[in-house]
């Protein structure tokens, strides 16, 4: 890694992006052997938030009969209010551009306050049903709170919770473990909802870019939109409804073309990689559906010989595309 950095720095100097004096300063700084613990500390802060909220959930579950509902709700409310008090006290207020707290601890305090708000509203609805049988409101209210907190405090983690809550309100899960268990195959309306929501997220990124509103949130929105639209489309490309697989193939092709351009605009390798994977899966399903009624019994040996080369060629092409993307975005 050190050798790679030295070579990269030397190339910058040779291309006259940095001066000889700057090159000497960079080498002098690297010789000090200083390294940052910023990432590690933030990881521990994030884990502490998860462990604390998980601990509260376990405490409620194990002592629900002895502690009492009112006491638990009161404790959650007090802790949530205290967290929000410190967040608002140290916040710079809402700004359209990217902002940060002076202390990174406060960013995770916002996350903690938001998660506790979701727990409080969910537990309140489960036990006392203030929203009656309108269980969707119990999802929508913390979702709205999460969006407000995400934009006011400029917190991407809270924005992720908000988008997940919005997806849950529409009717499907977008967590990694549940994403492929959504029943798109049996319920077409769920597929349409996923595609429409993904499209709305794209439209919001276009609108927010036009008014310069938290444009650094766009990658988060686009990532969710890519997964929603692509998985819903791919799931329905294998269904048995006549003609619909062609419709979803067109949707997948159009969305992937948009995300291809968006990945370059955002210079986001993650968006580009997932777009390629979805395109690859979609092309294979499309070819299978086109040739499924053709009898290949007489030339099946040819396919057996071609399949290894096909997969090897796919891997080589994938690597080449990634290299080209990195090269073009770096220039």
From TrEMBL:
Is the rRNA-binding keyword given for this protein? no
- Name listed for the protein in its UniProt record: DUF2157 domain-containing protein
Q: Where is the DUF2157 domain?
A: 11-158
Give the signal peptide, or none. Answer: none
At the highest ranks, the source species' classification is: Bacteria, Pseudomonadati, Bacteroidota, Flavobacteriia, Flavobacteriales
Q: Which organism is it from?
A: Flavobacterium limi
| Keywords on record | Membrane, Transmembrane, Transmembrane helix
The reply on keyword 4Fe-4S is no
Q: Domain of life here?
A: Bacteria
Q: Membrane-spanning residues where? A: 43-61, 67-88, 108-126, 132-153, 158-175, 190-207, 219-238, 244-260, 269-287, 299-319
Which Pfam families does this UniProt record tie to the protein? DUF2157
């Amino acid at each position: 890694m050190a050798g790679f950095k030295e070579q990269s720095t030397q190339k910058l100097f040779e291309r006259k992006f940095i001066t000889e004096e700057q090159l000497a300063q960079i080498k002098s700084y690297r010789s000090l052997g200083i390294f940052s613990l910023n990432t590690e500390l933030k990881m521990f802060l994030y884990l502490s938030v998860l462990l604390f909220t998980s601990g509260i959930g376990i405490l409620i579950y194990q002592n629900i009969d002895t502690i009492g509902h009112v006491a638990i709700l009161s404790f959650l409310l007090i802790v949530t209010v205290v967290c929000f008090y410190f967040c608002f006290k140290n916040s710079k207020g809402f700004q359209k551009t990217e902002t940060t707290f002076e202390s990174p601890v406060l960013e995770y305090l916002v996350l903690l306050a938001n998660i506790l708000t979701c727990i409080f509203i969910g537990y309140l609805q489960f036990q006392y049903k203030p929203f009656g049988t309108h269980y969707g409101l119990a999802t929508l209210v913390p979702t709205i709170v999460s969006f407000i907190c995400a934009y006011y405090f400029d917190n991407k983690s809270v924005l992720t919770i908000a988008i997940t809550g919005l997806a849950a309100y529409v009717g499907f899960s977008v967590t990694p473990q549940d994403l492929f268990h959504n029943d798109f195959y049996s319920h077409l309306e769920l597929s349409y909802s996923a595609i429409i929501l993904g499209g709305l997220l794209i439209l919001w990124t276009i609108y927010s870019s036009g008014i310069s509103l938290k444009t650094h949130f766009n990658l988060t929105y686009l990532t969710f939109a890519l997964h929603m639209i692509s998985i819903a489309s791919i799931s329905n490309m294998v269904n048995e409804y006549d003609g619909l697989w062609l419709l979803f193939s067109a949707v997948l092709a159009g969305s992937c073309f948009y995300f291809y351009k968006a990945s370059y605009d955002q210079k986001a390798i993650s968006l580009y990689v997932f777009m390629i994977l979805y395109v690859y899966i979609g092309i294979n399903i499309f070819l299978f559906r086109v040739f499924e009624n053709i009898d290949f019994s007489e030339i099946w040996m040819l396919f057996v010989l071609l399949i290894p080369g096909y997969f090897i060629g796919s891997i080589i092409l994938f690597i080449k595309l990634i290299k080209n993307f990195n090269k073009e975005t770096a220039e």
